[in-house]
Structure formats: structure tokens, C-alpha cells
Amino acid sequence: MDRAGEIAGLGEQARQAFEEKHRAREITIAASRRAIQACAASIRATHRGEFDAAAHLAAEARDHLREADDALIGQPDVRTNGPLHDAKKELAEAWLTLALVRNEALPTPEDLHIDIAAYCNGLAEAASELRRQLLDRLRQGETARAEELMGAMDEIYSLLVTVDYPDGVTGGLRRTTDALRAVLERARGDLTTAMVASRLQAALEAARDAAGG
Hints:
With 213 residues, this protein is an all-alpha fold.
């Protein structure tokens, strides 16, 4: 038996497998980084009201993740590791934030080609992003729209808090939901303060008008 040749063959097989895995991992890391950057830019554009730019950037991020998915065919252990999950969570956050701010139907996990764990985490973070929109609406005197945003945040939190599975299954959703709860309470305080101030101002103006009459 040619033991040396046998072992050399196994070594070559291992090197080839590891090289393919390494190449897939490098492509995934780079594509995930580009996707995360595009998602962050998309969310900033959404908050500025630049919705076309936001959609373009979110679509760009989706293309980057498609590149990563293609590289990971046959490499399931790399697929489930951190960078790609984080990038897909950011992709969900970007698209869901845009839909919530524009008051449009929410894209589904199937629409975004992402798993449900990344989607739910992105949904929680998109809901947190709504506090900024809520404050902007209050500054502009759009109390009704601020209440709608608050309602959306409440609905999302009420859903996610019922998802009671281990973090290994949900991708750490419990922590993300806990963070949303803190943002939700601050937003509720912001809205309550603004509404009380608005009612007080209206009462003062009514009293002033009555006195002047």
C-alpha cells in the first residue's frame, strides 16, 4: 500500500476544501460589509425623506447579499455564521423602515430572500428607528401621524414579545426586543408630553379668545 501517497491525497483534498471554504468566507465578509454600509445609508436617506435614494441603496444591499448567498452554495456552516446574519438583519431593517415611514405594505422575508430570524430582528430595529420619525412629526405639529407611528411600534413590539424561543433559534431576538421596549417607552413619553403641551396651548388660546370676546 502506498501510505504516503494515500495521505498526500487526503491532504490535497483537505487543502482544496479549506480553500473553497476560505474563499466563500472572504466573499461573504466583503459582501456583508458592503450590504451593511448600503443599509445604513438607506436608513439615513429614509429619515431625510429621500425615498428613491433609500430604495436604490436597499436594492444595492440586496444585490450584495445575493452575491454572498451564491458564494455559500455548498458551505452551510459559513452561511450560518455572524457577518451574513448581521447583514441580512440590516437589510430587513432598511426595507422595513422605508415601508413603515412611507406607510406602505411591509416586504416579507420571501420578498427579501432572508430567513425569519434575521427578518424579525430587522423588524424590531426598524420599529426603533420610528422614534426618530415620531419626533420629527411632533416638531412639525403632525400629531396624528406621530400617533400612527406610535401605533406601529406598539403592534410590532406586541408581536415580537410573544416569540419565546431560545436565542440560538431566533438570532438573539429577545435582546433586540428588550431594546425596542426601552425605545418604545421613551417614544410614548415623547408623544404624551407633546400631546399634553398641545392641549394646554389650545386651552390657553381658547381662554384668551373668550376673554377678548
